[in-house]
Amino acid sequence: MTKTHTTRKALLMSVLSLMLCFSMLIGTTFAWFTDTVTSAGNIIKTGKLDVELHWADGAKAVPTAEADWADASTGAIFDYDNWEPGYVQVRHIRIANKGTLAFKYKVSIIANGEVSDLAKVIDVYYVDPAIQVTDRADLNSVPKLGTLDQVLAKLGETGNGTLEKGDSDVITIAFKMQETAGNEYQEKSIGSDFSVQLLATQLAFEGDSFDNKYDVEATYLNKDADGAWLINNMDELFYFSNDVNSGNAYSGETVKLTADIDLAGYNWIPIGAGDVNGQWIGFNGIFDGQGHTISNMKITKGGGWNGLFGLVGRGTSTFTESISNVNLKNVVIENANRMTGGVVGQMYGNIENCHVEGITITAVPNWAGSAYDNGDKVGGIVGWLGDNGNYHYIKGCSATNVTLKAYRDVGGIAGYIGSSTIVENCAVDTVNITVDQITNHYGNKDANAGGVVGRIYSTPVTIQNNTEANVTITVPKMVSTAAELAAAIANGGEVVLINDIVMNNSVNLSNADFVLDGNGHTITMADGATNTHALFDITGGKATIKNVTFDGIKDGAIVRTVGVEFNANNVTAVNGNHTQVQGIFRLLGKSTIENCTFKNNVCNMVISLNYDGANNDPQIVKNCVFEKNTCNATAVVYYVKGASATIDGNKFVENNVTVTGGSNAATLYMGFQENTTITNNVFENNTVNGGTSKRIAGAIMIGYEAVITGNSFVGNKVTGVNAKANDVAAAAYYTDIDLSGNYWGGSAPVENDDYYNEYPSNHSVIINDYLTTYGD
Fold this sequence. Notes:
It is globular and about 100 Å long. The protein has three domains: 198 residues, no CATH class; 245 residues, 3 Solenoid (Pectate Lyase C-like); 163 residues. It is mainly beta. Strand 17 and strand 18 form a beta hairpin.
């Protein structure tokens, strides 16, 4: 039998995928015979369908002995993990028909992740028939297909081939990393998420009493007695997706799922690619999940038409398509833009008794940078449902634990429905929807977001007997001026900057509840602007400020709170000149300051917490940087009193604190704060200039027992008449203070000017051990 060119094409496709991650998925179909039968004196015996893939070292001669071939289904063909410029790996590849029947086969590539830039510097060589490559120089005389990323770009098509019984084909493939590859390719992998699917079925070759056409209609999926196509496992589900995306719409046919399928570790390609260069590629049949569950479905391909199905019913559709009785569990869809849902992205037909448990979808506006304003169409079950006037419906469906982020037209069940559509007896629970109109700056538009349905395109529609519970819809307000900012945060909710802001006056708020997301922008003050107490002076309520830089703020504080639950995350304050007593953050109430940077500021204190000592709230300062700030009162960070204090993972570097008279002072001043944890901080080259007090420390002043461990003290200094502690001043008045487990320059600390002092000494400072490595 003559082997076709497509045999080699399919073989190459499979080998390239195997290099990335080999997962041999073999499907064999015996739909055209059923049994082995024996009768007296006669033998009727079925043939055997058996396909194998093997490999051998390409630097050696093509093996003639069977023992010299390795079974590719048991491991990777290309498995070297320390590639460098100039490295070459060569393999002989053999696909073999080990059965007694001729077969036809399809090879499909299943992408489970994105291919990295490393593929751009891997050259691919292909030799047919196979040859021994004894030296790198031999590659100069063999055909080069291109770089690996160029070759992989052609793998979307399905390869087809045929082989007679006992036949095989052997080729040689080499991969070489280009000598010119630079350091930017270090510690990269091609991508470990590619598999190959090889399905074989009998070929119209062997003859019976009449001809060899009895099995000309052999297929890769089986049918039941009613003529419905059956999907029995993951391999066949991937085949079904590939078949539809190759143009087989299964028009008017029924497909049934016969088993639960777990897609963990694979990147799902939706069934129905949608609009492909003006051609609609979708499923135009009936899909019945028969109550089975598909779990751990992940889609990262980007673009539109995402879900278990991408597109159902379009083009030559009669709009009688349906999806029913299928369950999805643990679904993640990333980088989508439109027509996206858990079960189906765009549906012209009916959906019934489908359930999604645990789904996260992140979508951005389509056609970034254009004037597009038609929404994403994103839903927990379906993105787009209905074609005006065709009376499509979704009934008896549910979605729980749903997290959706999209531009607009987004709902827990359906993102968008057309007129004459019915949504009935559906339920949602624990739905969190964020309307993202920040990405690409499309502006403040109608959100069209809802717990069950996002957007109703036009009436009439029927929406009845649906339930929703625990639904949260967040629609951030975008602002670009100081006036818009003041008005937006006064109204509450999430406010996002889309431009840098110049403030002219302070913003005074009472019982506000807002989140200000700077979105990476900067807030400054205009010349002559007024800031008496604080740029944001807040009394009561809740406030969060994040992802913003304050540059050159002067006079009063940036934030002053009274009785406010306040959070700051990823806030940068630089070059400020805060002449008022408030400092930079002056906080009275429960406060958490994380991942913030304070640098080159002049102020009384950078942060003062519970500054009047009247409130008993917990305070956290974590993973922040305090660098080169000049403070004229007490401390860089100053605690008065609270229910608890946590200072963890911060860096205090080259700050300068100056006080006069008998005032106490330190870089971190805890006073007599109880329930304190001071861990994993770095205090380096800070200077504290004191007056006559003995409670002066270059790093920490502490008065109560606390957890103080994992900190590093390096190069801190104090000055003053009675100053005796470059690092820690411990007022051991009420209890012993344990300073074990810290770094003091590598040596054992002793009570002297270089390390610590205790005053008064009613109790003791305890140091049982110390760290010998900086920053541990």
